[in-house]
């Protein structure tokens, strides 16, 4: 190890989510000699490597002056054990913060400034407060087209990049905002059954109750390294894995950790996030689904047109072929909202069960058909029929099982310990289902942290219901979470609106 003050590590078991934090006693030699104060950024070196961490100062006897504690994520990053020695030293000031401050005051970021910021983010040099400042400074349409291109390119260059040595390499993405819209595992199964190569790297939830990686993880392992991903794809033609485990766009993974609690997913950063992951994964053809609806992420045809134009322009600049699909985002898709509940819907469609949600099946077939035609695996106008044949014959289900087995083994999704049903207040017709409220309730019930938690819908817009008929059910792992979510339900009857007969 290099220079710095040696300290003995003590396990504290403090979870700070994904922020690396080091804990030092106020009388520690490091704090006294360096003049460190709480929230200072310091370099921490161990035999297994080095990280940049945020300093928290301790006044109690939980730590001796000669000891140091680390947050759980920092402990894992350094691969240390209780009693190991670490060295702590000052971290030099970040020049890229000058550019960030300029952006906060309305100045544009040129390509060099954007690259400097992204490189520092990817290297873990930005504390959460800096990450939050960058996200906020770029939100609300504050990134122009050139800045979005620069951000996307910098994100790609900051991480690893896959090259499959052939084309087409297919990918598919939904911009989100539509609960239960878990078509990706079905599309991957159909596309690879048709002979396409589709190495799908997916995100965990940002502002939603479940991401594709969260849902897939209830059925098979998703935290594969790059050699494992290559083995799966060479063996089965595709995969569905968590992109954050392989560092394909590490700066994006850092930004996601603050976008989630802030509830922000701005247009420019959305485009950069989506496209950087596609390019880094080696995709040549990406199908992008934009659901449009009054309570979806994209709420109007005008907003959808602007997003589509930006996606197509940035993708073309980076050499990625795209096909955009504008879809109905008026209400949730399928029945389940939450990782395991959505996985059960996916399995019902792939297994061709009699009660499988028809809207999820038809949406997945529409997207699969478009992808097959886009990548030349089906003639124009025949994609949906080809996809339906692969689903109905069982070939897609067998391919999904093979992919899950190659990733580490298939398993059935878990079920929640506690369920409570919400009934219709009167007889009538379902007039509206609010996507945002459905997502909010599912998260309050524990999703995606608790894989089995979430919300299960029993109705669709237009359905007729009797008084007291079940509208939806809350699923939770503890009675307290169930009660907490139900209190929110009671205060928001507009979640599912029943128009009296």
From TrEMBL:
Biological-process GO terms, alphabetical: pyrimidine nucleobase metabolic process; pyrimidine nucleoside metabolic process
PROSITE patterns with a match to the protein in the record: THYMID_PHOSPHORYLASE
Domain Pyrimidine nucleoside phosphorylase C-terminal: 429-496
SMART domains for the chain: PYNP_C
Entry keyword annotation includes Glycosyltransferase: yes
One of the record's GO molecular function terms: 1,4-alpha-oligoglucan phosphorylase activity
Annotated Gene Ontology cellular component terms: cytosol
Annotated InterPro entries: Glycosyl_Trfase_fam3, Glycosyl_Trfase_fam3_N_dom, Glycosyl_Trfase_fam3_N_dom_sf, Nuc_phospho_transferase, PYNP-like_C_sf, PYNP_C, Pyrmidine_PPase_CS, Thym_Pase_Put
Catalytic activity field: thymidine + phosphate = 2-deoxy-alpha-D-ribose 1-phosphate + thymine
EC code(s) of this entry: 2.4.2.4
Pfam family for this entry, one: PYNP_C
Protein keywords: Glycosyltransferase, Transferase
Family, per entry: Belongs to the thymidine/pyrimidine-nucleoside phosphorylase family. Type 2 subfamily.
Listed name of the protein: Putative thymidine phosphorylase
Originating organism: Crenobacter luteus
Taxonomic lineage of the native organism: Bacteria, Pseudomonadati, Pseudomonadota, Betaproteobacteria, Neisseriales
